[in-house]
Amino acid sequence: MLNAIGSKIDLSVPSKKCEYYSYVSDILGHEKVQSMKNFTQHGHTSVFQHCVNVSYYNFRLCKLLGLDARSAARAGLLHDFFLYDWHDYVREPGQQMHGWTHPYTALNNAKKYFKLNEVEEDIIVKHMFPLTTKLPKYKETVCITLVDKFCGAWEVVEHWGEIAGKGAKKVRKAVTE
Ligand SMILES: [Fe+2]
Ligand SMILES: [Fe+2]
Fold this sequence. Notes:
The chain is an all-alpha fold. The chain has helices spanning 19-28, 31-34, 47-64, 69-78, 98-113, 118-126, 139-176, and strands spanning 40-42, 45-46. A two-stranded antiparallel sheet has the order 1-2. α1 (19-28) packs parallel to α4, α3 (47-64) packs antiparallel against α4 and α4 (69-78) packs across α6.
């Protein structure tokens, strides 16, 4: 079972009805993409799950707006395809921080394993706008800059919510026992 955050739809089931799956199945099943499960993005969310969240909601938003939902879904899944633990990221002298460099790393990795179109490349390399200052060329890129931040915030809030919930449970147990 594979869901985006806040959704009950199983995105891992091949189904004629699942337009999203038909767009991303080759990427979802790729060994290197699966390896993003080994790295943490926000709170308890892996980089893989974060990419699924962003990809799915970018797909939904672009579909709603009549934009290129296929490119939005595919590039969303690859937008943080940097394959290292960013918490341990060590800068070389003169090198910029992870926040600035990872869109380029993700784009290089994505190009290594998949054929990308122009929209997808723009989405990946500019998803951190306005942190990275190159202006988005496509509306789909503008969408991911919003969806990425929204999903990141949701993941962090969910994480702290779970911690607070567990803490409250412990306190309740200590008080009532
Ligand atoms: Fe990113
Ligand atoms: Fe992201």
